[in-house]
Specification:
It comes from Digitaria exilis. InterPro entries: PPR_rpt, TPR-like_helical_dom_sf. Belongs to the PPR family. P subfamily. This protein starts with 19 loop residues before the first helix and ends with a helix. Helix 19 packs parallel to helix 21 and helix 21 packs antiparallel against helix 22. The C terminus is likely disordered. Among the domains are: about 130 residues, no CATH class; about 90 residues; about 90 residues. By secondary structure, the protein is mostly helical. The chain is about 65% helix and about 0% strand.
Length: about 500
């Protein structure tokens, strides 16, 4: 099926000025063109008489000055009311240089409502011939700037309208503007839109560059379509695009994020070297992450050694990855040695480093050593975050110190963090193991007030403990709490907890 014929740019005739209108516009033009350039406040006496038609003619007369960029931004902003009328704004966009046009659009976009944008787009098309004085459809840079500005502002629906209008009139956006759109889709976590737009680019025979290809690979990887990302890498040379280290790193990171993907990543690294590209810290860190994820610390350390031999200095991410790998294997001594090597090498220690070390100690119940690390991070002018508090709560849960776990939970909330279900579960479980059901009841009340629903295993532990301790009156107290009926089934208040069949009825 043949593609539809492009629509010609519309013809538009601006009504001429006469009489007072002509004299008024001539006076404003003379005032603005004066040397030195007048300040914005000096226009106040002209503003009441600036109708959209007068303003449009004024902008056309000031066209040469606008193209040279001699009229300050503040002066232009004063001339246009808020919200700006579509006709004079459209003509102004045509006369401004592309970079200044983008800056001006960024300042006026907040005052352009979603309903007014299609009207602005229509007027940009309508005035294209009037402003450019040419019959060539390709000479409408304002449309391209409008498209990219919408994308940069993360207004993808507006950008799509602008793109469709361009294509309908046989216009193509620049590859830079296309990259802005794809980048905005990725920032909005909409990789499927990025991929769909890239396919539209290929259908329109728009040539991608290396940035386009790298971002499309990222989009495919975010969608879990690593094979498609690998195909893009292979086809880059067919598009006349040279592969870079970033191209390979994108795919290597995707392979290492998947289970069992280290071998393809290593093959890709070898291919990268064969093409004359030097692996950088991003390359090595991604593969080290994949090896640590599989628990292969020997190979991870060997790769770090190769990294140093090739003149690539291990950074904070490298050491943090190693420390996390050791902590996952419960090898806190090796994690501590990696930390010492990190400090000795003068590599910056950050919150991720401290949190990993603290978690490793807390997993073994070594809360005093973890506390000393908290003091160290405070001396380093770092502040404990939600992960720090969670790790410390894990340590107290391991030691079954319910009061200290509750203190940490309260400190976490006081610091502005929101405890998740796991934090509450550990604290409630610790109180139940210590037979302190009043304390567990208080924590459950807080959970329900925050609309966090207890899971069945936690409810079993709590209510069975009440039954064994003969404190079922506390269940009545819990039942009266707001949201209790919503999150706790009635069967917990009525069934015999020694009867396993009753438990299995709970959904």
């Amino acid at each position: 099926m043949a593609p539809p014929r492009a629509l010609p740019l519309p013809h538009f005739t601006l009504p001429p000025l006469a009489g007072e209108d002509h004299l008024f516009v001539a006076a404003v033009r003379s005032h603005i063109s004066a040397s030195p350039t007048p300040i914005a406040s000096s226009l106040s006496r002209f503003l009441p008489g600036l109708t959209p038609l007068r303003l449009t003619h004024l902008i056309i007369l000031l066209g040469p000055l606008l193209a040279k960029g001699t009229i300050p931004h503040g002066l232009l902003a004063t001339l246009l009311p808020s919200p700006p009328p579509p006709l004079p704004l459209a003509v102004l966009l045509h006369f401004l240089p592309p970079r200044r046009c983008a800056e001006f659009l960024a300042s006026v976009f907040p005052s352009v409502s979603p309903h007014a944008f299609p009207d602005l787009l229509h007027h940009v098309l309508l005035t294209a011939r009037l402003a450019t004085g040419t019959q060539r459809a390709a000479a409408v840079p304002a449309l391209d700037v409008l498209f990219s500005s919408c994308a940069r502002d993360k207004k993808l629906s507006r950008a799509t309208l602008a793109y469709r209008a361009m294509r309908a009139h046989g216009l193509l956006p620049t590859v830079v503007s296309c990259n802005v759109f794809i980048s905005a889709a990725l920032r909005l976590r909409r990789p499927e839109i990025a991929v769909s737009f890239f396919r539209e680019m290929r259908r329109g025979r728009m040539s991608p560059n290396v940035y386009t290809a790298n971002m499309v690979m990222r989009a495919y990887c975010a969608l879990g379509q690593v094979a498609e990302a690998a195909q893009v890498l292979d086809e880059m040379s067919d598009w006349g695009v040279t592969r870079t280290a970033a191209s390979f790193n994108t795919l290597i990171s995707a392979y290492c994020s998947d289970d069992g993907g280290v071998e393809p990543a290593l093959r890709l690294k070898k291919r990268m070297e064969q093409e004359g590209l030097t692996p950088n810290e991003v390359t090595y860190n991604a593969i080290v992450h994949g090896l640590c994820k599989k628990g292969n610390m020997r190979w991870a350390n060997r790769l770090v050694g190769e990294m140093k031999a090739n003149g690539v200095t291990p950074n904070t991410v490298t050491f943090n990855t190693l420390i996390h790998g050791y902590v996952r294997l419960r090898d806190n001594e090796a994690a501590s040695r990696a930390h010492e090597e990190m400090v000795k090498a003068g590599v910056c220690v950050d919150m991720v480093t401290y949190n990993a070390l603290i978690l490793g100690l807390c997993n073994e119940g070594k809360v005093k050593k973890a506390g000393r690390l908290v003091q160290d991070l405070c001396r380093a002018k770092l502040e404990p975050n939600a992960s720090t508090f969670m790790s410390l709560i894990v340590g107290q849960w391991k030691r079954q110190n319910s009061e200290r776990a509750l203190d940490l939970l309260n400190a976490m909330k006081k610091s502005g963090f929101h405890p998740n279900y796991d934090a509450y579960k550990m604290v409630v479980s610790t109180f139940c193991k210590n037979k302190d059901f009043e304390g567990a009841l208080d924590v459950l009340r807080d959970m329900l007030a925050r609309c966090i629903a207890p899971e069945n295993d936690l409810l079993h532990e709590f209510f069975e403990g009440l039954s064994e301790a003969k404190k079922l009156h506390l269940a009545d107290d819990l039942r009266s709490v707001a949201n209790s009926a919503r999150f706790i089934p009635d069967v917990y208040y009525t069934c015999d907890y020694g009867n396993k069949d009753d438990k299995n009825k709970v959904v």
